[in-house]
Design brief:
Strand content: under 5%
Helix content: over 70%
Shape: elongated
Oligomer: single chain
Number of strands: 0
Order of helices and strands: HHHHH
Number of domains: 2
Number of helices: 5
């Protein structure tokens, strides 16, 4: 009978550990579900994105002419992919547009201009605002 009680205690401990794991992970699962449904990432994800995109202290950022060349290259690539008629075109357009949007945001940050929060892809309105802000700052691509 003592062996049965020992096994029951082990099972109770296992159950308690699993239940505690579910309780501890519930906020993360809720945030992930909210992100999946609404598309709005949790605040901690946005903080990580900001830290990754911010240049490290004391490092030189990329020269503006390289931002302009990258924007020109990606704008041409977006147009080239949109003109194609082949399978997977839609995914390629989304990928190249997201890369172009990321280059736009990086160019804004390098100039100290206000850039949209979050991660690319940008909406059409956001992209237009960023492009006009860059053009007003003298960036040509």
């Amino acid at each position: 009978m003592a062996a049965g009680v020992g096994q029951m205690n082990k099972n109770m401990l296992r159950y308690a550990a699993v239940a505690a794991g579910f309780v501890a992970s519930a906020p993360a699962m809720a945030a992930g579900l909210r992100w999946l449904v609404t598309g709005a990432p949790p605040p901690w994800v946005e903080q990580i994105d900001r830290r990754r995109s911010a240049p490290a202290a004391g490092t030189d950022s990329m020269p503006q002419v390289l931002h302009e060349l990258e924007l020109a290259r990606l704008a041409d690539e977006v147009q080239r992919v949109r003109a194609q008629d082949r399978p997977g075109r839609r995914l390629q357009v989304r990928a190249t547009t997201a890369a172009y949007d990321d280059a736009l945001v990086q160019a804004c940050r390098a100039l100290g201009l206000e850039s949209p929060a979050g991660t690319p892809p940008l909406s059409d309105a956001q992209r237009y605002e960023v492009e006009t802000a860059l053009m007003a700052a003298g960036v040509q691509w």
